[in-house]
Amino acid sequence: MLESKIFLITKGFLKNLVAIAERMATVKRKILVLSGKGGVGKSTFSAQLSFALAAMDFQVGLLDIDICGPSIPKMLGLEGQDIHQSNLGWSPVYVESNLGVMSIGFMLPNPDEAVIWRGPRKNGIIKQFLKDVYWGELDFLVVDAPPGTSDEHISIVQFLQGTGIDGAIIVTTPQQVSLIDVRKEVSFCKKVGVEVLGVVENMSGLCQPVTDFRFTRVTETGEQKDVTEWVIEYMREKAPEMLNLVACSEVFDSSSGGAAKMCKEMNVPFLGKVPLDPQLCKAAEEGRSCFADTKCGVSAPALQRIIEKAGSKSGTVYHLSR
Question: What GO MF annotations does this protein's record show (predicted)?
């Protein structure tokens, strides 16, 4: 009886693998975006990576498997959209003709509703996404995973084992409390046979144009008095060239060497740093690409270099022109 039950489970699992392999046959490259902790900018990176690839005329799909925290719909400007069923399967929600998105966020009747699911149900929806979503011909499928190394990560690796995963990009912040968990993420990838394309150090210092800062003077009573207009006018009169400067400041302690040192110790590629840019945060809030204009003049060039470097690691050479 036990042997029969094991056989049935194995047979069902293999049947799912075959169905997923058939669906993924039209997808050229699959890239996981991972993080050790939440709040490090993983989903922002996934969204901007997808925008960037689409801007280079690739056919791109973005799959959000962060079941309990699906933020991708907002970051792509797709809040309130619904999934439609066709004869070919579930249709992704399209930002552009060459950028489709799938997320459980499209299925929630109320965006404020919590998804309280145990592992098997999460695994089930991931399997359904992989089996039933009709992407068509894709150059890239970007998979935005939840933070950590939980059921969702094991499921996505197992379900795609027959089709292969081209690699993973891991997003972190510079502080040690984040890097500790990134080490575990790297270890996970090595154990399950997923190549680490590289690590991105996000929020690597605050950088923004001087003219975007708000200047205050602290009074004797401890109150803050806004003197921004006076400072800008003073610079305009005395040193106008200063108005073109970008000011940077460390947000997290980098004395330990940050992600670059960790990558060297763990023998994985370091893709680069992205500064904490308020304009990039605003682009994510508004669901738009940071490459569409010059507003993200601090973060967009850094992201561009990282994406191009990651592309060379995955065997794809491309350049993003702005």
Answer: ATP binding; ATP-dependent FeS chaperone activity; iron-sulfur cluster binding; metal ion binding
Q: Is residue 66 located within the same domain as residue 107?
A: yes
d(C-alpha 53, C-alpha 62), whole Å: 11
What single-letter DSSP state applies at residue 312?
A: H
- Residue 269 has φ and ψ, to the nearest 5°, of -70, 145
Phi, psi of 115 (to 5 degrees): -95, 105
CA angle centred on 127, ends 124 and 131, rounded to 5°: 135
Same domain assignment for residues 119 and 225: no
Tokens in use for 282? 């605003």
Query: Within 13 A of 228's CA, how many CA atoms are on the CB side?
Result: 8
pLDDT of 8 > 50? The answer is: no
Q: Are 140 and 26 in contact (CB under 8 A)?
A: no
pLDDT cut 70: percent of the chain above it: 93
Q: How many CB atoms are closer than 10 A to CB 12?
A: 10
In this structure, are 171 and 256 located in the same domain?
Answer: yes
DSSP states of 53-103 as a string? HHHTT--EEEEE--TTS--HHHHTT-TT---EEETTEEEPEEEETTEEEEE
Q: How far apart are CA 31 and CA 222, in angstroms?
A: 51
Q: Do 228 and 201 reside in the same domain of the chain? A: no
CA–CA gap between residue 64 and residue 47 (Å, rounded): 10
With H, G, I as helix, E, B as strand and everything else as coil, classify residue 104: helix
- Give the contacts of 196 (CB within 8 A, at least 6 positions apart): 167, 168, 170, 186, 189, 190, 268, 269
Angle at 126 between CA 123 and CA 55, to 5 degrees: 150
Q: Is the pLDDT of residue 184 over 60?
A: yes
Q: How many domains does the chain have?
A: 2
Is residue 1 predicted with pLDDT exceeding 50? no
- Structural domain of 229: 212-244
